[in-house]
């Protein structure tokens, strides 16, 4: 658990560094930085660590963070599943080698830029927690310029994901908050245009192992894939 917590801290800290570097180091004037800080606080990262990451990103002291760059990698997993990986790295060769190894060991292959990204579209997604009145949600979504919304099917943690254009994410997020909704996340997300249904247990097992292997790499920030899998198959492969 400590190792997993440390990895989460590192990923969120790198996101803060890059967000602070890409705009003003003040969260009030930098939406990306503000959302990164909110995620970090929700994960329990101490304020001192957050302040240090902002200072690194804004260049207040030499930390090597200037070498961090955002890179998107693409590949195929078992069953022909398309996979997008977003990474923050200071060494492209190391990151590519680590990714290639993870793909190869788990029945996939790292592809060239553009090989699967055409299957995805980047959108802004605001997540609202709790039971929500659809009439209120529809009214607020229209006011905020949302395109669509989708209910989260979870009895323990119900909610809804509201989708909009990338450039409208901040406006939608603020509109939903102003209208009293409990916003728990606002992020950019790659959404697949079509999905591959996985039904074979062996393919499912290899695919989930690959997803875990990619997610565990230090340089990887996010992994997105275009597959669907029944819950009982997920349980079976994890047994």
UniProtKB/TrEMBL annotation:
Report the InterPro entries cross-referenced here. Integrase-like_N (IPR017856), TACO1_YebC-like_2nd/3rd_dom (IPR048300), TACO1_YebC_N (IPR049083), Transcrip_reg_TACO1-like (IPR002876), Transcrip_reg_TACO1-like_dom3 (IPR026564), YebC-like (IPR029072)
Belongs to which family? Answer: Belongs to the TACO1 family.
A biological process from GO: regulation of DNA-templated transcription
Segments forming domain TACO1/YebC-like second and third: 68-227
A molecular function annotated in GO for this UniProt entry is:
DNA binding
Report the protein name in the record. Answer: Probable transcriptional regulatory protein MC7420_8040
Signal peptide bounds = none
The keyword Disulfide bond belongs to this UniProt entry's keyword annotation: no
Location in the cell reads:
Cytoplasm
Q: Could you tell me which species this protein originates from?
A: Coleofasciculus chthonoplastes PCC 7420
Where is this protein primarily located?
cytoplasm
Q: Which domain of life is it from?
A: Bacteria
* Pfam families, sorted: TACO1_YebC_N, Transcrip_reg
Q: Which GO terms describe its cellular component?
A: cytosol
